[in-house]
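sorry for the late reply, my laptop died twice this morning and i had to redo everyting from scratch. anyway the thing you sent over, i finally got around to it. pasting the sequence first so we're on the same page, its 154 residues, then the predicted structure underneath. double check i copied it right bc i was rushing
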Amino acid sequence: MNPKPVTSGLSISPQLSIADIEAAKAQGFRSIIVNRPDGEEAGQPTIEEMRNAASAAGLGFAAIPVTPGKASVEDAARFDLAIRTLEGPVIAYCRTGVRAATLWALSLGSSTAPDLLLQTLSSAGYDLSAMKPRLEALYKGRGASNNTDSTQNG
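ok and here's the structure:
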């Protein structure tokens, strides 16, 4: 497990395993957000398995499953609510981390300059420059009509 810090309260990671739950706790994480739907890949732990492992470890948990390339403004709002209500620091994950990074950027898109969001994510190892037009639209207040992202990997 190699989470990438995005903010002091949020790190993003590729797929976590059940064993990674204890490692996350040992690294100081207090909550987990899964952004991957069940059944994307053989052998992937289910949301329920991850929820149970997080609960057994005493960690908070939220599931906001998003299909690759389909992150909506509503998904981002749910992500933002989870970040604000779960005890931090939080680790969010999907297959590669891109969906979690996308949701974080979209959740702040109306209040934070797109270049700052993209630079922050780039520093964490995520190139979401293809999202810049969508983030610019959100920042200018026109984002509600643009419901899905153009980032296809996840």
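Confidence is low (pLDDT under 50) at residues 143-153.
thats about all i looked at so far, will dig more tmrw
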